[in-house]
Amino acid sequence: MSQATNPAPRDPAQAPNPIDATAPERTRDRRASFSKLLALAREEWRSLAAGTFFLVVGSVAGLLYPRGMQHIIDGALSSKDGLVGQRALVDQAAVEMVVLAIVQSAAVALRFWFFSVSGERIVTRLRQRLYRTIMKQEVAFFDERRTGELTSRLSSDTGVLQSAVSANISMLLRNGAQVVGGVGFLFATSRILTALMLAIVPAVAVGAVVYGRRLRKLSKEAQDALAAAGEVAEESISGLRTVRSFAAEEMEGDRYATAVERSFSLSQRRATNASIFMAAASSASFIAAALVFWYGAGLVMGGKMTVGELASFLVYTLFVAFALGALADLWAEFMRALGAAERVFELIEREPAIPPHGGETIAAPEGRVTFEDVGFSYPTRADVPVLRGVRFEIAPGEVVALVGPSGAGKTTLTQLVPRLYDVTSGAVRVDGIDVRDLTQASLRRAIGVVSQAPHLFHETVAENLRYAKPDATQEEMEAAARAARIHDVIEAMPDGYRTVVGERGHRLSGGEQQRLAIARMLLKDPAIVILDEATSSLDSENEAAVQQALATALQGRTSLVIAHRLSTITDADRILVLDHGRLVEQGRHQELLDAGGLYADLYRTLVRGDLTPT
Fold first, then answer.
1. What is the DSSP string of 189-249?
2. Fewer CB in a 10 Å sphere around the end CB: N or C, the chain?
3. Order of strands across the sheet with 433-434?
4. Measured between alpha carbons, how far is 37 from 34 in angstroms, rounded to an integer?
5. pLDDT, tens only, 285-319
6. Among residues 489, 410, 421, 422, which one has the least CA distance to residue 451?
7. H or E stretch at 510
8. How far apart are CA 17 and CA 29, in angstroms?
9. Is the pTM of this model over 0.70?
10. Distances 55 to 48, 49, 59, 171 between C-alpha atoms, Å
11. Pairwise CA distance, residues 580 & 408, whole Å
């Protein structure tokens, strides 16, 4: 019997989809994002309440203003109170209008201040929360995300939200009050004219909903495209030296231009949709106003309405029309904000795979490191094993060198000790405790790392050193710098320890950067030290000096060193040889040479070129 086979899945873009099954989910997401936006505003409820009070005062004053106009016109045209009576009515109405104007202006200024300051506070806290959340994510998270995307969330998306939770809320309430109050005054003046004017509102409202959905989708795509352009710029600028070395300035310019053009295209489509909707809403509002004017003129000619009443009605009509137009724009802005909010809250609410808090604290670490049948694959390449069944133990104070060909897993192994990644199988222990059961802070305080390409901040030498120990004294910094053979170099700089090293330390030579990073590690005074080819950027003279300093400074500390030079390997207490993610040999230098295995082959390569095949 033949077995039926399932047909190949069709491309979703080509398959018919009469019912969008994800529509309810998207609606829930929109509601959730909107609720979170309101929750952000709720944190500033006192300031927003004060702003709302002045908004009400200003709105009431503005809505009473046309009444004064009505009294002036009717007073000027009335003859029953005589000329003196007419003058008194007109003067009184004029004074009332001036008072209303002053009150409204003051209320508008105070409303604007309260809402603006509240918005700044809200977005400041939002950016702080977002940044702290980003910094708590596991390293694998950053393997999947680009720096430009994350900085775009911090700047561009939060900027969109700033308007949504401050000025736009103020304008929404103001225009909403103007619409409600204006319609109330219109009904009080003429129900017939009001009904005629409001006949256009349902059509505009339906159009706003349809347009808002479309705009939200386009805004989300435009924000993504802008973030992608930011990623290209960040990557090119941070790698400027590489760009220059390949004379690729034009190519990078074209790459950025392409990314920006994509963002521009989407923004242009968004502007086109906005223009069409605004034109339709505006024309509908003004056509309705024209009909009201025409019908109202007939009522005046028939003696059913005074000229002043018609004038005030027309002004209220314009108030309502302008407010409705503003609400349409605000609807568009809120749709943009919802698109940005989804991205921001997605990051804020993301739980890191490696929890930043909780667990046991190492008070006085001894420095014993144990690998128990460790297997590991990077989350971005889960199907590619990097380490397989690695088992060894490093005693406190022991210096262990790691050697092996390129791709053997040396750097990966060192990243598992401070729990930058979690093992796929097995366990890594420090002082007999699984690193997954320790607090990240206490674990990493016990470990000092110096990599092949150390990262220095665009700060002074002192601030870079104090990154390891914020309360370090000048004497402590100088002692660490002397141990790393960098103190004399620092003292020779124009501003000494106050010298700014430049972005990523580019104002220092490679050897100076490396020695400053070693000094920073020594200032931390860790129980476990990981050196990932830490002396690779030094010349022979500087390397000899730093090796002497490290030999003294590392006494009593557990050291895991990715070997680069012969001296590092031969002086180690033990050597671990990795190949294709497996620990294939371990022992002292002479023992491994006598065994005639992989280490012996690697050592012969080192002797010929004094260089580790990494």
1. H-HHHHHHHHTTHHHHHHHHHHHHHHHHHHHHHHHHHHHHHHHHHHHHHHTHHHHHHTT-H
2. N
3. 385-394, 369-377, 425-430, 433-434
4. 5
5. 677 777 777 877 887 787 777 777 777 777 777 77
6. 410
7. helix 510-524
8. 21
9. no
10. 10, 9, 6, 9
11. 5
